Amino acid sequence: MADDPQPSMVIEAELAGRAFAAQIVRFDIPRPTDSLIATDARYQINMCLTPRPLHARAGYEARWGRHRFERLGDIFMVPPGEVLRCRGERGQQTSLTCQIDPEMLDTFGAPQWDDRQLAASLDITSARIRALLFRLTGEVRYPGIGAERMLALLGEELAIEIARHCREVHERPATGGIASWRLRLIDERLAEDGAAPSLGELAARCNLSVRQLTRGFRASRGCSIGDYVETRRIEAAKRLLAGGDSVKGVAFAMGFASPSSFTFAFRRAVGVSPRQFRQRQAPGARLGPN
Known about the structure:
α4 (127-141) runs antiparallel to α5 (147-171), α7 crosses α8 and α10 packs across α11 (259-270). 29% of the residues are buried. This protein folds into two domains: 8-171, Jelly Rolls (Sandwich); 181-280, Arc Repressor Mutant, subunit A, CATH 1.10.10.60. 45% of the residues lie in helices and 19% in strands. It is an alpha+beta fold. The strands form two sheets. Strands 1-2-9-4-7 form a five-stranded antiparallel beta sheet. It has a four-stranded antiparallel beta sheet with strand order 3-8-5-6. It has helices at residues 61-64, 102-106, 115-120, 127-141, 147-171, 180-190, 199-206, 210-221, 225-242, 247-253, 259-270, 274-280; strands at residues 8-16, 20-29, 33-38, 43-48, 57-59, 70-71, 75-78, 83-88, 91-100. The N and C termini lie far apart (44 Å).
């Protein structure tokens, strides 16, 4: 239909070098989407700076078929030459996107893009990669003296960390994880509103002991279940803040003991305070450096 609103994309800031480029991009998604991300000869990395639309999932259709979709995390990566099909609800989102030439990673050994690597690429939980992407966000948004050189240095460091992450996934034992249906039960519980569940609650839901849950979850997802729960809780908090809820209200809704403890956890995870994050969601907001 002619009056059917179309998704749009606005580049808010960007820096580019010879082998590495980064952009801050705002997406306006007026309806549920089913779209493709097709890479050329570069790796593409995406970290959401605001909440992803609800139920964001993705799959490598040419590899997995039409019906397999995995949850899309805060950070995901698409290898060169791959096509990723993404689905999600409507909403607005701002992301940092990076493009890396393959030789920057292949210097340390080209990753083997088998099923495990592709699945792991949809939800990268590495704290080191996250910290580097936040530094890049600041440099792209507010470039300073020597910005191009800094971009090259951060891009090289990011390539090293991604190569290490891929090696860790490759060397991770293939056995010892927990079943995909149990992982879905955990994700469904974490999608519910309110305070984060205890390990005991999640273990009972999965019909496992706490020890089985913690060991199996790390083998499956490559991070501790505690870190994963905290990441999902921060995602939910970002969604509430973006919707206009007060910092105090979000803190207690998410089960934090006080607004100050919530602020500390949020700043550590996101790089800005809840109040600054909420202000940045206002239409036309442009804040200076923190």
